[in-house]
Amino acid sequence: MSNSTLFLSSGFIRTPLQNGLGRYIPQLQRITFKFCKNHGGSRGVRDFIESDLMDFAKAHPGTVVYLKPRRHRSPCLVAEYLNGEREYLSCHAFSRDEVQKWLSHMCTKSGIPVMRFRKYQHTDYPTIQGVWNPFTHQAPEINTADFPHDVLSKPSNQEQTATEQLIEIFKKTQLKEMPEKEDK
Asked: Coiled-coil region(s) at which residues (predicted)?
């Protein structure tokens, strides 16, 4: 584990209300542009507002866009998501393209904070038996065997194979149907 993950909260993978199973619901509820009308550090945000904001608003009709001019303050973006989370991004000295890239990043996020994952799988009802996989109860001889193998290919608890059982069931049903057809 690296030192950068020590200060992250830990948790499990969550999806917001199974989003995407029925229809996709964008999780970004509102975005607020805070900028200064005169300061040089807000130039990229101002350029984005003048040229690309209307296209963004048309492409994302479910997202409310607020513009908040502030005097002598550094520009920032505030994204608010449906789950109540807020994300602040300082846009000091960003170019127009950088603002656009960060905005598209915020639009595609779910609003769930970045976290360190505890495990690869999670269940609400944990088992005491451990994690199952297809090779859990297999014979270890299979690892080195060359197939077809005479001993491993034969079923241990049955004299007949499944194919032989199906052929026998088919023949029995054919014999039952034959006398009915002759009686008619």
From this structure: none
For residues 3 and 142, the model is more confident at 142
Domain co-membership, 25 together with 112: yes
Please tell me whether residue 42 adopts helix, strand or coil conformation: helix
Alpha-carbon gap, residue 179 to 89, rounded angstroms: 82
Q: What is the pLDDT of residue 146?
A: 85
The domain in which residue 20 lies consists of 7-117
Q: Where are the beta strands (DSSP E) in the chain?
A: 10-11, 28-35, 64-69, 76-81, 86-90, 116-117
Interval 118-130: pLDDT, tens: 776 767 777 777 7
Residue 171: CA atoms inside 13 Å, Cβ hemisphere, count? 6
At residue 4, the pLDDT reads 60
- Picking from 31, 29, 28, the residue whose alpha carbon sits closest to that of residue 75 is 31
Residue with tokens 């350029």: 47
DSSP 8-state secondary structure symbol assigned to residue 113: P
Contact between residue 58 and residue 90 where contact means Cβ atoms under 8 Å apart:
no
